[in-house]
Amino acid sequence: MAQERVAYVNGKIVPESQAVVSIRDRGFLQGDAVFDTTRTFGHRIFRLDEHLDRFFLSLKYMRIDPGLSKQEFARLTMEVLEANLPLINDDDDYWVSQRVSRGVMVDGEYKPTVVIECAPLPFDVRAKYYRDGLPVVVPSVRRTPPEAQSPRAKVHNYVNLVQAELEAKAHNPDAWPILLDTNGNLAEGPGSNIFVVRNGELLTPKEQYVLSGISRRVTIEIAQELGIAVHEADIDLYDAYTADEAFVTSTSFCICPVSSVNGSDIGDGSVPGPVTERLTKAYSGMVGIDVEAQYLARLER
Ligand code: PMP
Q1: In angstroms, what is the span from residue 108 Cα to ligand 1's centroid?
Q2: Structural domain ending residue among the three candidates 92, 121, 150
Q3: 1: in domain
Q4: Which residues, 6 or more positions from 221, have their beta carbon under 8 angstroms from its beta carbon?
Q5: In the prediction, which pLDDT does 166 show?
Q6: Helix, strand, coil proportions of the chain in percent (round to 5)?
Q7: Would you say residue 26 lies in a domain?
Q8: Which of 285, 256, 290 lies closest to 271 in space, CA to CA?
Q9: Are 75 and 183 in the same domain?
Q10: How confident is the model at residue 277 (pLDDT cuts 50, 70, 90)?
Q11: Does residue 94 sit in the same domain as residue 198?
């Protein structure tokens, strides 16, 4: 059994230690690259087609031709995943990512760099957030507005979100940043969308200002099935501070409750609230894994 994970790089599946890209790569030099990330649940990949659809929209936005079809990405993704699955325990799962940069100039033209890779999900470090909730901090840095660079595309340039994270974590190392958009409404965090619950209904920022998270879409689908109304809305800090419940969604978290915003408790600060709990249970049913239990089990080790 191989002991090192493998990755696909430009036509070959190689051990990760040999998976390298050029110092002249535009992804490295300028963040000029696109990616997407799904995950496994119980070692089964989740909504790969939907992630690849979003990936190809991001590529189109960035005017990068990856030189491979969606079907080829799907096949190669499964090949890389299957080679890596024997390396994790039954109760672990992977993030599974496709990445394409504009690449390196060869004979006057850019030749794209294509990478497909797996990374173990960080269950241990994030488990406490399912017990305690996420302490959200809203940093002064605003999310890049659509006029500057569309937040709907999933590109390698995360500097705006990184600045936000540095600022939030300087206040509290456990803080989870959620940025405002340039209009002063909640937008998103580095890797997560946000929802608030008010009077039994869900509010989430408008899609123009955030990444259309697949977990955000799953949550909206589930809410509709459960008869919970969902509104895309401008949500300001008043809405956040006075919300009955709040939670973030992401590929890794699925749904994770928020306990406070800028030190102000959501409700009485206990988590999860009843709507968040109902949605999380339904999410778990859909993916075939008890999402919350998978995280909480790590606290007992
Ligand atoms: N916003 C940003 C900026 C992200 O990077 C992510 C993670 N892909 C999300 C939201 C959540 O999206 P998803 O549910 O597809 O993981």
Answers
A1: 34
A2: 121
A3: no
A4: none
A5: 98
A6: 35, 30, 35
A7: yes
A8: 256
A9: no
A10: very high
A11: no
Q: Residue 257 is part of which domain span?
A: 125-300
Please choose from 48, 154, 287 the residue to mutate so as to test ligand 1's pocket, defined by most ligand atoms within 8 A of CB: 154
- Identify the band that residue 2 occupies on the pLDDT scale cut at 50, 70 and 90: low
Same domain assignment for residues 247 and 275: yes
∠ CA 225-278-280, rounded to 5°: 95
Are 222 and 114 within one domain? Answer: no
- Which residue, chain included where needed, has tokens 């599946």? 13
Q: Give yes or no for residue 1 having a pLDDT over 60.
A: no
- The domain tally of the chain equals 2
Pocket test for ligand 1, best of 250, 252, 255 (most atoms within 8 A of CB): 250
> Could you report the per-residue pLDDT of 82-121, keeping only the tens digit for each?
999 999 999 999 999 999 999 999 999 999 999 999 999 9
Residues 79 and 153 in one domain: no
Tokens of 145: 């507005």
